Amino acid sequence: MKSFVAIAMFAASVALVGPALAADKPTVILVHGAFADSTSWDGVAKTLTGDGYTVISAANPLRSLSGDAAFVSDIVKSVKGPVVLVGHSYGGEVITNAANGATNVKALVFVAAFAPDAGESGISLSGKFPGGTLGTALSPPVKLASGGQDLYIDQSKFHDQFAADVPAAKAKLMAIAQRPVTQGALEEKSGDPAWKGIPSWFVYGDADKNIPPKALAWMAERAKSKQTVVVKGGSHVVMVSHPETVTKLIEKASTAAAGQ
Q: Whole-number mean pLDDT of the chain?
């Protein structure tokens, strides 16, 4: 009887410790960019959840920078406790604006992402350095009844342009499922950048064709990145092709955030 009670008490203590440890970890909010969707984070989310993190993969609307940032900001406000915001590509612009005034955002992680300063846009930053070829890979724009136009990457060019280090079969499915971004969203100027007051981490591939690697390096240095990881041969979607590298950096940022 005594041994049964001891085992029961031990099991209860383990059950209590597990949630307590999980509660110590920040919630990780993943924000995808243009021409992608929330499933682009699946490999990262799988490991993060396995390691005890609460993860939200936001469905970024890709309609306007201000509107998308407000959408993500509402998700951040719904979380009780610290948050690590992670943005890919255009999603970096979104988290840069969404984190403003959010006292629970403790770290920003930019994954092959724009980190604009006030008055900058994705279009202006992508043209700041040579090397980007996105413009020549786009399909004819889709005109919207509400005004403006949607941009897509030509499916026949998607693999080489967007995901060169992803298996062809997977890249083909990604091309079919790509989410369009409005041209207006990429042209809209950013507000005050949260990275001036919140610690940031960067990871990108040195074979990125959407955002020139020189631009990514320059933005990381300007933001005083705590750590910048460059994936050799990495395409624009390093979170798909190298999820373990991206996850490791997010967890480093999360550990630093938990210590604040």
A: 92
Q: Is 258 exposed, middle or buried (0-12, 13-18, 19+ CB in 10 A)?
A: middle
Neighbours of 184 (CB within 10 A): 16
Quick one: average pLDDT of 163-170?
Answer: 98
Contacts of 104 (CB under 8 A, 6+ apart): 76, 79, 81, 82, 83
Higher pLDDT, 6 or 196: 196
- Strands, sheet with 142-143, edge to edge from the N-terminal-most edge strand: 142-143, 149-151, 181-182
Q: Please give the CATH superfamily to which domain 26-129+184-258 belongs.
A: Alpha/Beta hydrolase fold, catalytic domain (3.40.50.1820)
If residue 202 lies in a helix (H) or strand (E), which one and from where to where? strand 200-205
Q: Name the residue among 87, 91, 165, 163 with its Cα closest to residue 122.
A: 91
Question: pLDDT tens, 192-235?
Answer: 999 999 999 999 999 999 999 999 999 999 999 999 999 999 99
